[in-house]
Amino acid sequence: MYVVTARGLTKDYGPLRALDHIDFDIAKGECFGFLGPNGAGKTTAMGIIYCFMPPGSGTVEVFGMSVTECPSRIKSRIGVMPQEDNLDPDLSVIENLTVYARYFDVPARKSLPAAWELLEFVELKEKAKARIKDLSGGMKRRLLLARALINDPELLILDEPTVGLDPHSRHSVWEKLEYLKSRGTTFLLTTHYMEEAEKICDRVAIMDSGKIITTDSPSGLMSTYGGTLEDVYLRLTGRSLAA
Amino acid sequence: MQLKRAFRVWQRHFKVYTKLYRSSIALNFVEPVLYLAALGLGLGAYVREINGIPYIDFIAPGIIASSAMFAATYECTYGTYVRMEYQKTFDAILATPVNLGDLVAGELIWGASKSMFYGLIIIIVISAFGLVASPLIILAIPMLFASGLIFAEISMIFAAVVPGIDSFNYFYTLFMTPMFLFSGIFFPLDGLPPLVSKLAFFTPLYHLVNICRSFSAGKPSAAIQDVVWVLAVALILAPYPFRLMRRRLIK
After folding, report:
1. A85 contacts in chain B (CB < 8 Å)
2. Residue A158: enclosing H or E segment and its boundaries?
3. Domains of chain A as residue ranges with CATH
4. Do residues A161 and A33 lie in contact, with contact meaning Cβ atoms separated by under 8 Å?
5. How many residue pairs bridge chain A and chain B with CB atoms within 8 Å of each other?
6. Of A96, A178, B145, B187, which residue is the least packed, with the fewest Cβ within 10 Å?
7. Where are the domains of chain B?
8. pLDDT in tens, B91-130
9. A243 burial level (CB within 10 Å; 0-12, 13-18, 19+)
């Protein structure tokens, strides 16, 4: 059973073609990754899945519903961890979770205990009353992850979850993701870190210039093309990911 | 658009407001009282009466209207713009079941609520000073909301099209300040060239001033025309903030 199905998905920004007829399926319980450099179309594909922008052409179904017809119902079952910090600076750490829960119609008697539980999970319990601007970069990423989980989502969408983090914070986020994965959450993540793709993803779609070049498991890719995932990427796209 | 989801946005703003109310209430409430004191007492010592009414009594109901106006416009120009462009609060909210239509409706209803609330504070203050002749001023409260909706709509239309936050200077200098000065708050427009009152007819503040003044004098029937104007314009403008915000935000 597929959680996300995309067929012929195309998206243009003016003259720029961000996505060019891409097809992919994400199965329930799997961790699916979009791997590619900045500008490859990863964030656009994700934005369409969580109904932030409409597809140009082609179809995208999430939980069997069309993204253009049922955005609210789809979004109620998704958690999104964005690439940039869009935490609410007018609210404290814990209020960021409880106010967010309200958008999902989670009543306060449920959201408050859930918020504390999530703060414990992301190790921010002592910061519950802190202001957002007093958090470090790593803490903000962990709070964004906690916020994405407040509605107990069936599909978790992570846009570059560890970008800009020091190695210690990065491993701390990976640990959380691995725990969630062990509980059967479906993931969609974008990354341009090979290590992240290898460590977390069951399957990766290698993207370049709005197209999916190939889709396979990291180990499958490495045995087909030889070398590390980095080498595979270099061979398929003719350029290095680090760029 | 779904009203319940719009209310979720309203609740977020209300929560933030109740956290920050001490600082923001001072800004919005001290200023009108200063106008009332400076002009009502200062200028009033020389002007004495307008249309047989003591000068401070003449301007007091107008201050209700201007206070309501500034509350919604600040909220839906600077407030909306900061949430949209700097804090990315809109992006965060749009990843939840709240859709763009719900979000815009929430912003507008919040702006209108603030108009009503700030107008109400001034009603209480000027009543305490004995500057309101009739308890019928209470009936103006829903009209503060309806006019607040117009101010919120105009502000959000502007917020949806400006290239940057500095552009609001144009909005305030070229639109808000003239409207404030020539709305009939400080002097009747009859003495000016007829073009002025003709132009004033097209501004919402002029009508809200008439409503507040007539209601506080106990003659609501004198402002029927203004009530109709406000309700009609609030309705007519409603689709535009939604349309323009969609154009700005949905790529």
Report:
1. 88
2. strand A155-159
3. 1-77+154-243 (3.40.50.300), 86-153 (1.10.40)
4. no
5. 68
6. A178
7. 3-249
8. 999 999 999 999 999 999 999 999 999 999 999 989 998 9
9. exposed
